[in-house]
Amino acid sequence: MSKSAEKSRKKEVKQSLIPIYIMGKKHEVPDSLTIQKALEYAGYQLVRGCGCRGGICGACGTVYRFPNSYRIEVGLSCQTVVEPNMYIAQLPFFPGNKATYDLDTLTATGSTLAALYPEMYKCIGCGTCTRSCPMDIDVMEYISRAIRGDIAGTAEASFDCVMCGLCAARCPAELVQYNIAILARRLYARHIAPPAKHLAAAVQNTRKGVFEEGVKKLKKMGTEELKKVYTGRITEPDIADEFWEPEDMTYLVSEKTR
Amino acid sequence: MPYTAELKKLIKNVEKTRARRVEKKRKGEEFPAMSLDERTDILKYHPDFKEEGRREICIGPNKGYKIANEMVDLIHARSRVNPESIDLSSPDYETDVLVIGGGGAGTAAALLARENGCRVLVATKLRIGDANTMMAEGGIQAATKNGKDSPYYHYLDCMGGGHFKNDPDLVETLVTEAPDVLAWLEKLGAMFSKFPDGRLKALHGGGTCRKRMHSAGDITGAEIMRTIRDEAKNHPADIKILEFTAAVELILNDKGACEGAVLYNLETEEYFVCKARATVIATGGSGRLHIQNFMTTNHYGATGDGLFMAYRAGVPLKFLHTVQYHPTGAVFPEQAEGLLITEKFRGAGANVLNVDGEQFVYEREPRDVEASAIIRECTVRGKGVPTPTGKFGCWLDSPMIDMLKGEGYVRKEFPGKWILFKRYGIDITKEPMMIHPTLHYQNGGLAIDSSGKTDIDGLYAAGEVAGGIHGENRLMGNSLLDVLVFGRLAGSAAAAYAKKKYKPGKLSLQHVAAYNKEVASIEDAATRVSPMVLPDYSNPDVRKRQLTTDYVGTIR
Ligand SMILES: Cc1cc2nc3c(=O)[nH]c(=O)nc-3n(C[C@H](O)[C@H](O)[C@H](O)COP(=O)(O)OP(=O)(O)OC[C@H]3O[C@@H](n4cnc5c(N)ncnc54)[C@H](O)[C@@H]3O)c2cc1C
Ligand code: SF4
Ligand code: SF4
Ligand code: FES
Predict the structure, then answer these.
(1) Ligand nearest A79 Cα, by number?
(2) CATH topology assigned to domain A103-192
(3) Best mutation site among A76, A166, A171, A185 for ligand 3, i.e. most ligand atoms within 8 A of its Cβ?
(4) Which of A90, A230, B115, B146 would bridge A49 by S-S if both were Cys, CB 3.0 to 4.6 A apart?
């Protein structure tokens, strides 16, 4: 692996070229490229429409169509490989309405969603959003769960959303689905999922300085001594269950006694 | 692209040994981990140890320090702008705290600066959240289960991973603040993977002695990033976000303190002056410099800009001589090349195997050790698996995870990777993945103290751009943590400075003018500019035909 993907591709000459249409204009590009790399091959230096290059930031929502097809296809340009005769347009930005709120004071109910995003009820159940989602999320389903006030269900069904905006761009009822979804996820995690008790305890123990002495001791050690302690430390076995505790409980606070 | 017939044949070797390997794992028998001496020995296969890959810096506070050529190139380079052409007398933006970079560290800093009563401006190169933070998959470390884990053990692991070279004060801060960060995220409504009773799920990561890797499915960074971004956008009056606006130089004043930055609007190509009482650099890493031509996992904007700006202003660099190569980047299919295969796969028990389907390294060694072992297998030992494009990789045996943890585990815990490979015609619950080390993380960076302050008054740094916390090698899960620990601390410290200590001076770019002058005497340096801002992946043939790059008449 001595060449970066991007650089090596520029040098390969003998790959087969296929025609694609970038905003209607024809370009010949190698058939192994993603749409994103094909745009670069065609000569564009991307500023918008390119973030992570790894399918997770949602910057590169793209729509395309083949000649003689009524279907609008969608994809993330960094993840979708070019095909002959694609007509491509990127959608690097689509204005979306985001409510502002103080999560602490909200309740995890359908009426919270309804108050912040009343347009939710305009959904006509057309399913366009689901067909537009490059992450294969059943968007209409999470919206109907939101309408039913099922916060946990909305949170779970929308978890993979990369907030690319393609659903919102095509929604006839003008919803901004991904913003409703993130509100539901935050409500769920903050107010429905039980808080982690061990975490609260760890915050308290650590703040109280229970482990301070141990850490200070390590800090004072010379490298050789530290190496010895490091090498001698016990590793929690892979197969250990949640409540495994080592024999040596120094610098630990047993959860069993609590 | 599904596996070719040749590769399918080689996969048979993996299948042949699988039952035996699973059986061993079930019994708790692992491939022997390397001793410290063996680790030192194998590191000679690591790219950091390639002498021809690096050279000395000839200018600035780290004169004589040897780091990667690609970084030295950008240190030995002049500024994008002629400082004299910039009018500092009437700033275009004024704010209490300027945050440069809208990734995890920057957004956390912005939230805390606001909480501490400041108006904040976030200038970021792409969109807020288009950042390495978004891409982190595996998880975030924190000692949250005190029955078996505490900052004591976290400290030990972190130091061991970093070859005991880490800055002890920074490590102490990291591990002590860690539980607070997790609690902060829980309160902000980040959806961590939990048991029904609320207990956080946690796994091992490379180099950990306790299971303290917390995650949100296999998109931990994305869940953290989108949550804190949503929160930042909940305060539009106090946190202003300028996207597609890169900082290109810091502005100092006549007393040597930092008072903002020169910003570049990537779309209109204008330069603006932003005056700030305090500034936080959170520009992240530098994978897109493609050190030694390695492929990278990093986002498009990871060009190390903050390093070069701050170095010009006089902030020293630390630990930049080591770069982290993630042991498991995809090498097949070609479209996915460089893409990260999270360490969580190995945490969940997947073995790393050579062309014969045999183990040659324990799958949870620290990253540099693991990567070196894979490089050795693919080079001197000649036991790599050949790809159709003439490269080599090793197998990561994902199918054994379901056998260990139960049917459906991979689909549930790694939904992102499962879908992605399915699209390429590969079912990772049935076929192993092909991997090779890929350029991943900038271990070092700007020198800071435990509040995130640099040597320059009014200038703070946090996140991947800073150095010292991870010594020579970062453990997985300690970076998301570092970004939030030091992002929050830097935001608070910057706010305190802006409110109490800030003393206005006369804005100046004198340091840039002086640097430009000094750099001119270094061979070749005058032909290069930095920061890079964006890498260039456009077609060189097209570039050749772009005959008019300045305005000629009304257009370019
Ligand atoms: C694929 C991948 C997986 C990872 N997995 C994990 C993991 O599982 N656990 C873990 O702990 N760590 C992981 N890491 C590492 C971790 O995600 C990063 O180190 C960390 O998120 C960096 O955060 P940051 O805020 O410092 O930088 P970033 O999140 O990269 O943010 C920097 C921001 O600054 C912007 N910027 C850059 N230059 C300028 C400029 N000149 N002006 C203005 N803005 C600028 C960038 O565009 C970006 O938005 C992973 C990294 C990658 C790439
Ligand atoms: S596209 Fe809009 S209207 Fe149609 S189902 Fe989706 S949310 Fe409802
Ligand atoms: S739900 Fe909407 S915003 Fe989210 S990934 Fe799907 S199309 Fe994009
Ligand atoms: S560039 Fe981030 S999803 Fe495609």
Answers:
(1) 4
(2) Fumarate Reductase Iron-sulfur Protein; Chain B, domain 2 (1.10.1060)
(3) A166
(4) A90
CA B115, B219, A128, A166: dihedral to nearest 10 degrees? 60
Q: Which two tokens stand for residue A12?
A: 């390969």
Q: Do domains A15-89 and A103-192 have the same CATH topology?
A: no
Pocket test for ligand 2, best of A124, A167, A174 (most atoms within 8 A of CB): A124
The bridge status of strand A61-65 relative to strand B213-214 is unpaired
- Compare all CA atoms of chain B with the CA of A255 and give the residue at the minimum distance: B147
The answer for residues whose C-beta is within 8 angstroms of residue A204's C-beta and 6 or more apart is: none
Distance A228 CA to ligand 4 centre (A): 45
Q: What is the pTM of this model?
A: 0.94
State chain A's mean pLDDT as an integer: 92
Residues of B with catalytic annotation? Answer: 326, 346
Q: Chain B: nearest CA to A172, how far in angstroms?
A: 25
Domain boundaries, chain A: 15-89, 103-192, 197-233+240-257
Ligand nearest to the CA of B101: 1
Residues B399 and B316 in one domain: no
Domain span at residue B360 reads 5-49+327-439
Q: What angle do CA B83, B84, B87 make, to 5 degrees?
A: 90
Chain B residues touching residue A247 (CB < 8 angstroms): none
Structure token digits, residue B426: 């590969």
Regions of chain B with pLDDT less than 50: none
Rounded CA separation A193/B196 (Å):
8
What pLDDT score was predicted for residue A15? 65
Going by CATH, does the domain composed of A15-89 fall within 3.60.21.70?
A: no
Facing residue for A211 by CB, picked from B150, B160, B199: B150
How many separate domains does chain B show? Answer: 2
Mean pLDDT of A165-173: 97
